[in-house]
Amino acid sequence: MPAKKRPEGTRAPNGASSIYLGADGKWHGRVTMGVKDNGEPDRRHVERTNESDVIEAVRELERQRDSGQVSEPGSQKWTVETWLTHWVETIAAPSVRENTATGYRTAVYRHLIPGLGAHRLRRLEPEHLEKLYSKMTAAGLKPGTAHQVHRTAKTAFKVAHDRGYMTKNPASLAKPPRVDEDEIVPFTPAEAKRIIAEAGKRRNGARFVVALALGLRRGEALGLKWTRLDLDAGLLRTPRQLQRYPWKHGCEDPHACGARFHKRTPCPSGCKRHKRGCPPVCPPDCVRHAASCPQRRDGGLREVDVKSKAGRRTVGIPGPLLEMLRRQKEAQDAEREFAGTLWHEGGWVFAQPTGHPIDPRVDHDDWKELLAEAGVRDARLHDARHTAATMLLVLKVPLPVIMEIMGWGDAAVAKRYVHVPSEIVASVAGQVGDFLWSDGSEKQPEPPTPQPDAAAILAQLQRMLDATKDPAGHDGDEPPGLRAVG
């Protein structure tokens, strides 16, 4: 229905929208959305080939204005590609750890920009992201990869939304594919004892006992220095950790530099060359293989701060582990004397025969060998950290102390790390049976061995879970005051 012509001699009120047919043959609409920072009216313009389309576009702008979802002036220039590039290089990279920035770049440049980059930022919808996730899984990528891309998109588009460049965050509405989390089973006491016994026979074996007994992360354990251990007081500090960073090309032509390493055909079926899975075929413009660049930079092993303020902690060392660490120091002193001028003094508690720090990949292989030699099921090294947390629960250690020992700033993390052992579940079943089926006239015989106090342990776990919902609980910025455990 065409717009009614305004009576001659009258004019629209200030701020009213206008629709008109231009000299170019297109229909134009103008809507006042508010006031710019300089005080001028923020008047938006839309154009369409027919009147009904421009009316709908004008009404959409008016709905955004009336609901308070007005995008900032100039936000129309952003495409998904230009925004993501700006966000990852200018906003995210300077404010996060390098490994985190590497993960962001992989999600942005390998998945988000190729799949969504041409869209206008303001017109991106949740369905566009969901279609991208479906294509990724259909191409053989794991749902966890799609989840990582989803988390990156959610973070990037939240910044755009906060700055007024988007009226909503489409990633917060999109549904990523379901990820089946692997069940984590902590080591049983018998398994832990076999691991400790086998570790005592190996060079640097105390490194894995530290993981089981104290729950240190891999980077924290490999980054330990003798100056942070007080063997007399039995205390250990973890202010720093060791991490591997990827190398970067320092040459002018990264593609040509790594040409001799470019993989052009997939590995044959049953390939035995690659132990950790066959790498994918290189893209035509591959700029990887920086580790082989003669001018490589910014990579290798680095000592960095731990993940959070709560991670900078002091914990007590059990007596048997103290003895292992003393023997570790004696063995290292002998290695230093034997190496002579080849020794590189770094102060590392766990080091190579020449004093250099241990590479995390070598540490991973050593752990797998240890499990095999100890006759223990295959498991991640990080499962030792779950075992340490569960052990503290069984010992009925208070939640603030568990958080301090494990280096957690948020009690919600306990839900992921603390597991109720099967022995406790069985003990609860026995207690239920005694309660329901006992007539009360006969005195129950005392068990030959003390049973776990299941009720107390489960109550402790419930307090942990309740603490995650307590608005007055720790916010992650300040760890509990207790600094050492005897």
Automatic annotation (TrEMBL):
> Where are the annotated segments for Disordered?
1-23, 465-486
Q: Which residues form the Tyr recombinase domain?
A: 182-430
What are the recorded GO MF terms, alphabetically?
Answer: DNA binding
Biological process (GO) annotations held by this record are: DNA integration; DNA recombination
Enumerate the spans annotated as Core-binding (CB) domain. 78-161
Q: Which UniProt keywords apply?
A: DNA integration, DNA recombination, DNA-binding
UniProt signal peptide: none
Q: Entry's InterPro entries?
A: CB, DNA_brk_join_enz, Integrase-like_cat_sf, Integrase_catalytic, Integrase_recombinase_N, Integrase_SAM-like_N, Tyrosine_recombinase_XerCD
- Per UniProt, the ranges with Basic and acidic residues bias are 466-477
Q: Does the keyword DNA-binding apply?
A: yes
Coiled-coil stretches noted in the UniProt entry, renumbered to this chain: none
Q: Name one Pfam family in it.
A: Phage_int_SAM_3
PANTHER family, alphabetically?
Answer: INTA PROTEIN, PHAGE INTEGRASE-RELATED
> What's the protein called, per UniProt?
Site-specific integrase
UniProt organism field:
Amycolatopsis echigonensis
